[in-house]
Design a protein that fits this description.
The protein has about 525 residues and is an alpha/beta fold. It folds into 4 domains: about 5-135, Resolvase, N-terminal catalytic domain (Rossmann fold, 3-Layer(aba) Sandwich); about 160-260, Hect, E3 ligase catalytic domain fold (Alpha-Beta Complex), CATH 3.90.1750; about 275-325 and about 415-515, no CATH class; about 345-410. The chain has helices spanning about 15, 20-35, 55-65, 80, 85-95, 115-145, 175-185, 190-200, 215-220, 250-260, 310-325, 330-375, 380-405, 410-430, 435-445, 465-475, 505-515; strands at about 5-10, 40-45, 70-75, 100-105, 160, 170, 230, 235-240, 275-280, 285-290, 295-300, 310, 445-450, 455-460. Strand 5 (about 160) and strand 6 form a beta hairpin.
């Protein structure tokens, strides 16, 4: 009795459970072998589509057949053996060498010319079927993408809700993924430390295990989390209809840190004014160092010798400066009353801005339509199309973030918050905690400049207007055009206990005028 191999295959697990399962194919082959008196020496089972070349078990079987240790192979049907012509050609070479190939479900005599022709035709039909199936699957895949659906498994932080349904934010893992973006955006984490931290907080994958370094990097680089679908293999982008987990601004900051553009160096010493003070001569940051129990900030450039500030002197100067930003109750009441009337009109301004954003979104949609038309008319190539399309989708995402943002404050209401922030800056700086001191300085100032042993300040808006108003109102010296590139050097500053305070109306008018003209709020 001749010995034969037996080969069975299904494309998917679902096909193995239903339809022409492995067990059904095995039973049909056993019955065929029994009827024809054939001995099955070994079984080769595979669960993989025949559309792909390089199936492991199929190739192993072909290699064993080539050794000539068995007479041939029994297969359930032709389409179980090959749906690509290269595999069928390999099988044909073995047939030409005298290897017998039997099909349990089809009566084809491959030893005859007519039977061989019939098998070749069926193999070609099977190959054409798989090509057509690929096209239909691709058509359906891209159809979903153009509708804004993501026809692939949901990324970490989202849940699948079925076909033709948008991914939903997972109530458990979604906030953790957002927190991962927020933590990494601070610049205080590496991918390794972020991975360990988020794993400790409960961020795990589908298998229940924590993410690898590459896994957490893939999450941080995936624009799906800001509402844009990107197909990594082709580089194509599509607008998603799912709810974003992060804003465009946060996503872009994370990308900047990942690419090294916004990386922050690890600090060895926690000096209060580290990297906050620049030398007026060379524009480099002053270096903090401890000498004889005191902290000094010095410029080490040979051309800037003598540029040195003592930390206690800096703290005294900053404390006096921040004292200018504090108001008494009478001044705050006057400013609040002045702002209350203006805030009523800000509702109309917010509505106008809302309409402008809607119009900008509409213009983005029009540009996307024209871009698609240009691509279809072959006036631009695919690479240019994808590049411009991705840029437009990101721009549109930013506009949608602005539309969805709850912040509709105008200059008057935003001004009050700034004034109250300045009101607390002095108290926070005087608290004695290094972190609060740094935060107060960074919120109130945009630049600290050292000129020799003198410290200069450049305040943020509207704190600069407050300082100018306070000095002018109290009669202190004031240089309107500083000679140090924007820093304001104050040789004499009235303190918070100065008796001459007031005049909120003039200050309010000055700040609002600048807010609308020079530096408008967004």
């Amino acid at each position: 009795m001749k010995a034969y191999f037996a080969y069975t295959r299904v494309s998917t697990v679902k096909q193995g459970e239903r339809g022409s399962s492995l067990q059904e194919q095995k039973s049909a082959i056993e019955a065929y072998a029994s009827r024809h008196g054939l001995l099955i020496a070994d079984w080769f089972e595979e669960m993989e589509t025949a559309a792909k070349i390089g199936r492991r078990m199929f190739n192993r079987m072909l290699a064993e057949l080539g050794k000539g240790q068995v007479a041939g192979v029994i297969i359930h049907k032709i389409d179980r053996s090959a749906r690509n012509l290269k595999d069928w050609a390999h099988l044909g070479e073995l047939i030409d060498q005298g290897i017998e190939v039997h099909f349990a479900h089809e009566s084809i005599d491959l030893a005859s010319r007519g039977g061989r022709l019939s098998a070749d035709i069926q193999a070609v039909v099977s190959a054409d079927y798989i090509r057509n199936l690929k096209q239909e699957v691709r058509k359906g895949f891209y159809g979903r993408l153009k509708q804004g659906f993501y026809p692939l498994p949901a990324p970490a932080g989202y849940l699948d809700r079925g076909k033709a349904k948008a991914k939903e934010i997972c109530p458990l893992r979604g906030p953790l993924v957002r927190e991962a973006f927020e933590r990494y955006s601070t610049g205080r984490y590496t991918l390794d430390t972020l991975r360990a931290e988020m794993h400790a907080r409960g961020l795990v994958g589908r298998t229940g295990r924590g993410f690898s370094k590459n896994g957490i990097s893939w999450i941080l680089r995936n624009p799906f989390y800001m509402g844009i679908i990107r197909i990594a293999r082709t580089g194509e982008t599509f607008e998603g209809i799912h709810q974003p987990l992060v804003t465009k601004a946060l996503f872009e900051r994370v990308q900047g840190i990942l690419s090294g553009r916004l990386s922050e160096a690890v600090e060895r010493h926690d000096f209060v004014f580290r990297r906050l003070i620049r030398c007026d001569g060379c524009r480099r940051s002053l270096v903090g160092e401890r000498q004889k129990g005191h902290v000094y900030y010095r410029c080490h450039m040979p051309t800037c010798r003598g540029t040195s500030l003592r930390e206690t002197d800096i703290e005294q100067s900053v404390r006096e400066l921040l004292a200018l930003l504090a108001f008494d109750e009478a001044e705050l009441k006057e400013l609040r009353d002045l702002a209350a009337d203006a805030m009523a009109s800000e509702v109309d301004e917010a509505a106008t801005r809302h309409d402008q954003l809607h119009m900008a979104v509409g213009r983005c949609n029009d540009r996307l339509t024209r871009l698609t038309d240009a691509f279809l008319d072959a006036t631009i190539d695919k690479e240019t199309f994808e590049h411009r399309k991705a840029a437009l989708l990101v721009e549109k995402r930013g506009l949608l973030d602005a539309l969805e943002s709850p912040n509709t404050k105008g200059p008057a209401s935003d001004l009050l918050e700034k004034l109250e922030l300045g009101q607390t800056a002095y108290l926070r700086f005087a608290s004695g905690f290094a972190t609060e001191k740094r935060d107060a300085v960074q919120e109130a100032t945009s630049n600290l400049v050292a000129q020799g042993k003198t410290l200069g300040f450049a305040l943020r808006f509207p704190f600069d207007e407050i300082a100018k108003w306070r000095i002018s109102y109290c009669g202190g010296p004031f240089r309107a055009e500083p000679r140090t590139g924007g820093a304001l050097f104050l040789p004499s500053i009235p303190t918070a206990s100065s008796p001459e305070r007031g005049g909120g109306s003039r200050l309010y008018e000055s700040i609002i005028r600048h807010a609308h003209k020079a530096r408008p709020y967004s």
